[in-house]
Amino acid sequence: MDLKIFLCVFFFFLGYRAYSQNRCVSVEVEKAFYKNLYDQKRNAFETFISHKKKEKEQQLRQNRVSEEALPVYTIPVVVHIIHNGEEYGTGSNIPDSQVFAQIDILNKDYRRKNQDTIQTQQVFKNVVGDTYIEFVLARQDANGNATNGIVRVKGNKTTYNIGNGALELSKLSVWDPQSYLNIWVCNAGASSLGYAQFPVSYLPGLKDENTVSDSTDGVVINYRAFGLDYYPIPNWNYAKGRTATHEIGHYLGLNHIWGDASSCDGTDYCDDTPPQAGFTTGCSKRITCGGQNMIENFLDYTYDQCMNSFTKCQRTRMRIVLENSPRRVSLRTSKGLHYPNAIIHDIEISAENIPFVLDTLNNIHITIQNNGNRDIQGFHLSKNYNGVIETIFYPDTLNPKMKLQKQIPISHTVRGKNTITFTASITPSQIQLFNDTVQRVFYFFNPDTLSLPLIERFLKKEQGIFTAFGSAKGGHTWQAVSDTTNTVNTIMKAPLFTHKRFIRDEYWLVSDRLSMEGLTEASFFFDVAFSSSAHVLQVYASDDGGKSWIIVPYQNTNKNIFAVSVEYYPQKNDWENKYINLSHYAGKNPIQIAFVAVNNGTNNLFLDNIEFFISADSLIVRPKQAYIIYPNPASAEMSIAFSVEKKQNISINILTIRGESVFNTMFSNVLNQTFSFSTHTMPRGIYIMKIQAETFTSFKKIILH
Fold first, then answer.
1. Active site annotation includes 576
2. pTM for this one?
């Protein structure tokens, strides 16, 4: 096809979308390139995939091989950073660290090791899976020279429009697409994030492997959407590296899950992705075509923070392409996967995944691998645990490609956030391949079990019965701050306003273990203040040490009382008191309660005065002072409700005006309980009640009639 015709057709397709942020224009580019042959090309390709899929299924049945025991296919990647002459690490001249972050994201997404898989909707958990595809930066170029897989070139344009930009970019830098996945990172303009060239099949009568498609084969990504949290603007929802995950899916033969149709008639040729009318934007769940849409699929148009899954059918399609398609099958045997034949010493370290929240940790298992082509005669392992560094020499011999596992003991854990970093090193020094350090971050709870009743008023900014931590996405968390209406008081703040661009980021505030033993009922109250058109506070309970969480419903309120453009702090009348019944857990395993603020891009949320009761009475009296006596006057029964700072024994003594005792009793472990006692045997009259506590002594006049 004439290049001028291609560019004109492309801009026709691009023009009607140029005024909004386009997640992907791969289909438009494909249509512009093939023009009237597009339908023929796509139909032939899908016929090819369908045929190969049947062959694959038959082969798996004959060999009795599970799809969950597949070999891992590794793709060598070259990242061409086409910049405008900016200083290294600024603008389109992104730093190496962003490239490494992007490769890490790809490997986690394609191996389903991304931590946000917990957000996969329950209805789809049986159809999503590991693709067994991995990515590595090229280790040698076509001439056999060692490389780190990153190429930097100063371009000759300020902006490279998605589409024709691929031709211009490939003229600046391209490696053999038979041996490398080319990824061009550049300033692609304000309207589009990226696009990829679809794979081809051996199609008789259709020239797929012409000069244009060969030279541009790869993926183009806007630098603003490459890597992790690089583009520093508010409400930027494409900062988690999922544009590359999406576009490489196209490069490996995947279609958009809605079939690029606005109706329910579109198809992506995968039975395990439900039909949906058009693409999804944002993060909101939606139902179209009679069912729940798979908004978490990497081939939808949702925000980066909402994507987390490939399906098993999508896995099959991509693996078929890597096994059969021109310029894809050869990637698996590329020299770029291997180091050159020079003597290379290189050690790699990895560590087991650790639950984000836990109450005990005795050791961590790490794996050391020799990635070089010579034996390693011993290595040093440095452990930096919360700033305390310890280095140990291991005399083990590792042959090339050999793996060695070590169990590293852990001690001196602290409550709250813990960070541990392992670094492996050898002599002679290895080449700088950036795989010799691994870090894990996790949070510890108090392993002790606390007995109800309990009160958490956050009166001090030191650790109470709750631990605050952030999600794996943004890492932001609750903060203890002074109440602007009462500076003596401390309240908990979820700073959603400051971090509002981190949509769906989660702020967790989790209690220690609470004993339910011996209880027949239980409940708790809490005060909340917020400013949002949609309530963003969720409450969860766990009875298995935090391994799983069940949402606990409560009556919430939708309101909009404060502008999103100004940071919100609560006034006295903003606070709402909420009640949750915990009797379902009474008499069973210890539980933990979690308050989770979900960032919906609006404003701050505040918590205070969390009170756990050994009663399920939603109308229970909650005095604002140390105690309240009611009814007073009384006839047959009187009650006293306490709210003291700490658990203590309290005695009650009722005296006549002459000082004679007519009734006395002792209450143990008093905190916020209510106690009742009979008065019908006492003569009518005026009495004095003496309340003797560990922290105060008080006298109160009572009347019996």
1. no
2. 0.56
